[in-house]
Amino acid sequence: MKKIILVTLSLFASLNLANAEDKVAAIAHGKSKFMMCAACHGMDGKGLKLGPTMMMAPGYKGSGVVDGDPEIFALVVLKGIKKEGTEYLGMMAPLGAALNDKDLAGVMTYLRNDFSEKKDLVTEEQVKGWRAKYKDRTEMVTRAEIAALLAKSDAPKKAAGPKVPEKSE
Ligand code: HEC
Questions:
Q1: Euclidean distance between CA atoms 85 and 81, whole angstroms
Q2: Among candidates 97, 93, 114, 104, which has minimal Cα distance to 39?
Q3: Which of 63, 73, 89, 166 has its CB 3.0 to 4.6 Å from that of 160, i.e. a possible disulfide?
Q4: From ligand 1's centre to the CA of 1, what distance in Å?
Q5: Which residues contact residue 50 at a Cβ distance below 8 angstroms, ignoring those fewer than 6 apart?
Q6: CATH code: domain of residue 128
Q7: Does residue 103 lie within any of the structural domains?
Q8: 1-40, pLDDT tens digit by residue?
């Protein structure tokens, strides 16, 4: 009995270790691809300022997308965000073609570990699954859709981006 417990424990330990190593590798790879995001979100992930008030893109801190259900995060980066406001000069373009599964998993892991409260690993396999799931989708994601998805997910949190514009009747 003792032996089984020991074997089980060491199995868990080595699994955790493997996960930790994967995470370190994913973060390093993500960092190497981060320039693609830093162009608008800033090297420090705080959003690139253009003059005293205008920003290229929002910062990642406190973003419910970066922190929340990784599937929603992946969807946003794969398909981009429909531009509905003028709060930011930049636009969140669809980056699915610019990042392969390993790149996106790395960037997501890097952001979740360095710019958010989540400290988990997003794997290449997960990204592969989400890419396949949304492969036929061509429209960008709307702010309203992001808000609805976040509200439905386990960790509802507000997105950092601009509010959904009120519908004029
Ligand atoms: C050309 C500029 C640009 C680039 C490059 C860019 N983004 Fe964005 N991103 C934006 C803008 C602008 C928004 C806000 C869009 C909106 O809400 O209308 C945004 C929003 C986001 C959001 C949603 C934040 C929230 O909480 O609402 C995430 C996540 C995100 N970007 C991740 C990334 C990642 C990861 C990369 C690199 C792989 C990247 N972006 C590259 C401009 C950019």
A1: 11
A2: 93
A3: 63
A4: 52
A5: 56, 89
A6: 1.10.760.10
A7: yes
A8: 677 777 777 777 777 777 889 999 999 999 999 999 999 9
156 Ramachandran zone, left/alpha/beta (phi>0; psi -120 to 50)? beta
Which residues lie below 8 Å from residue 120, measured CB to CB, with a gap of 6+?
23, 70, 109, 112, 113
For the record, the structure tokens of 26 come out as 């994913």
| Residue 49 lies inside a defined structural domain of this protein | yes
11 domain residue, yes or no: no
Structure tokens at 168: 């004029």
Q: How far is the centre of ligand 1, averaged over its atoms, from the C-alpha of 158 (Å)? A: 15
Q: Which atom of ligand 1 is nearest to the CA of 66?
A: 29
Cα–Cα distance between 94 and 141 in angstroms, integer? 9
- pTM equals 0.88
User: How many structural domains is the chain composed of?
Assistant: 1
Distance 107 CA to ligand 1 centre (A): 12
Ligand 1 shell residues, CB under 6 Å = 36-37, 39-41, 57-58, 63-66, 73, 76-77, 81, 83, 88, 90-93, 95, 107, 143, 159-162
- Paired tokens of 105: 């998993």
For the stretch 99-114, pLDDT in tens is 999 999 999 999 999 9
Domain containing 34 equals 22-152
